[in-house]
Amino acid sequence: MAAALATCDMATVIEGVRTARGWSQGDLARAVAYSQSWVSRVVNGQQSLTVTQVHDLARRLDIPLHLLRFDGTLQPDADAAPAAPAPEPGRAADTPAALLDGGQLSVDATIAPALRSITGGQRRMDSTSPARDLLPSAVAHVHLAERMLLKARGTTHHSAVSAAASEASGFAAWLHADQGDMGSARMHYRTAVIRARQAGMRLLDVYMLGSLAAFEIDTAEDPELGLGLVQEAEYVLGPSAHPTARAWLACVGALAHAGIGDRSAAAHGIGRAEKEIARSGNTNPPWPWVFAFDQAKVAGYRALVGVRLRSPHDARDAFAEASGPQARGAKQSAVLKVELAAAHAEAGDVDEAFRLAVEALDTGTRFGSARVVDRVRSFRRRYRGPQAACVRDLDDRLASLVNAAPSSGYKSG
Predict the structure, then answer these.
(1) pLDDT tens-digit readout, 191-229
(2) Are 199 and 186 in contact (CB under 8 A)?
(3) Most buried in the list 142, 182, 236, 398, measured by CB within 10 Å?
(4) Are 392 and 351 in contact (CB under 8 A)?
(5) Exposure string (b/e) for 136-156, b if CB count within 10 Å is 16 or more?
(6) Distance CA 123, CA 357 (A)
(7) Distance between CA atoms of residues 277 and 51, nearest Å
(8) Distance (Å, rounded) from C-alpha 139 to C-alpha 171?
(9) Side-chain half-sphere of 385: how many Cα atoms within 13 Å?
């Protein structure tokens, strides 16, 4: 073990930790919140690690970082953005003036609000803009936030800048997921969790953990891993937290339980969320939640649970109770339409199912969203009913994407 630590041989280190604690490889995977297949590749020397991943593993396994000797063999972080180019002569830079001091980055009390306002503006644009257009600036913003965090080390501003960096990474993760880049999305989500913990802000920590859990459950389709993350978030949250946070986590957990087929636990989670919402009254949601998490939002999760548990009539009733696609951004509305299409298909309403799927596909191609288009493809693969005209129409539209010119902007995940 000493030799492995001296050479940063993480395969030997984490295998040694596993053996010493009497864990199975599955126990180890749950402890580090990675998939078992990923952990297996690391242990067998088939998976290269970045510096960020080494830090993450060391933190989760309580390995003191000062014992690890970084010998230069680690991979650089794949998502580290290149330095932003200098502004053209005579043209103002896009970075707020408060971030610059004689050409050198400096930190004061204005930095964290400035960084957060940029992320907030990018989030608002997400509902009407393709992720591919927002992603370069979002990743550059993460890079800027990380540079500011280095400058803030040892100052009274470190916590606030860490929180701003967490929000920036969380949004970059969301955009990567929309583009079907699972590895980059996961890395940014994990960075968001780490930065939230450095900020010492419990609700932000929970929000980013829950967001990572939702990604693993719904996008990466790994509900067992997602459930472990939900349980970790609930532990961090504690029993006396704001009802919004508790209701949201209960819904994410219900989705995980539905994904592994646990009908009783999924129903219990939705029931817990409904009770929390009833208890919350008209209180405003806590930061970093922006919108109220109300009974209509819980109904939306109940509908998603119904789809995954193959209860189409329950799902359709819940979708009707929910706020409806029109209350959401276009891309999120399209995702919900695919879910609702699955419920209609299960209930035998094929025409309505494929009408919704086509509408979702149109939105996905318009916004270049691999996440939406891949959801439609998955819906079509699962359908085993009669080959009606509406089915052939969707097949033709999907086939046209394969033959589309590269300039169309759609990239399959």
Answers:
(1) 999 999 999 999 999 999 999 999 999 888 899 999 999
(2) no
(3) 142
(4) no
(5) ebbbbbbbbbbebbebbeeee
(6) 26
(7) 41
(8) 9
(9) 19
Beta bridge partners of 132: none
Q: How far apart are the C-alpha atoms of 290 and 153, rounded to whole Å?
A: 28
Which band of pLDDT confidence, cut at 50, 70 and 90, is reported for residue 85? very low
How confident is the model over 126-147, as pLDDT tens digits? Answer: 878 888 899 999 999 999 999 9
CA–CA distances in Å: residue 390 to residues 68, 134, 287, 385, 397: 59, 34, 44, 12, 11
Q: What is the DSSP letter of 216?
A: I
pLDDT recorded at residue 164? 95
228-237, 288-297, 392-401: the lowest-pLDDT one = 288-297
How far apart are the C-alpha atoms of 119 and 203, rounded to whole Å? 18
173 has a pLDDT exceeding 50: yes
Reference 204, options 161, 148, 142; nearest CA is 161
Q: How far apart are the first and last CA of the chain?
A: 39
CB 50 within 8 A of CB 75: yes
Alpha helices, DSSP H only, in 83-130? 111-126
